[in-house]
Amino acid sequence: HFLKQSSSLGATAFVESWVDKVEGRKVYALAELRSPDGKVLYSSSNALFIQLQPQGEDADKWKNAFGDKK
C-alpha cells in the first residue's frame, strides 16, 4: 500500500480496482483511491491472490481450465 496524499475525515473518495495479470493460479490485482474528480491520488495498492485447487467433482473442471502443474 502506498499513501500518496491524505484526505480529510468524511471526504468522498472513489476506489477503482482491476486485475493486472493472471499467471496460472496467481491473480495480480491493483487498486487506487482517488478524489471524486480523479485528479488527486490518495493511495495505491497491489495484491496477489492465489486460487485454491478445488477437490472432488470440481477438480477435473479446474485441471481442464488451468492445467495441473504438478
Low-confidence stretches are: none
Mean pLDDT: 84
How much helical structure, as a percent, in the residues?
10-25%
Largest sheet: 4 strands, antiparallel
Q: SSE string, helix = H, strand = E?
A: EEEEH
Strand order of the largest sheet: 1-4-3-2
Instruction: Note the beta-strand portion.
Output: 35-45%
> In DSSP terms, counting alpha (H) and pi (I) runs of 4 or more, how many helices?
1
User: What does the overall shape look like?
Assistant: elongated
Q: What is the CA-based Rg, rounded?
A: 18 Å
Number of beta-strand segments? 4
Distance between the termini: 33 Å
Structural class of the secondary structure composition?
mainly beta
Can you summarize this structure?
This protein is mostly beta strands and 70 residues long. The protein is 13% helix and 44% strand.
Question: Overview of this structure, please?
Answer:
The structure is a single chain. This protein is mostly beta strands. It contains 1 helix and 4 strands. Strands 1-4-3-2 form a 4-stranded antiparallel β-sheet, with no helix packed on it. Strand 2 (14-23) and strand 3 form a beta hairpin.
Which keywords apply here?
single chain; 70 residues; mainly beta; 4-stranded antiparallel beta sheet; 1 helix; 4 strands
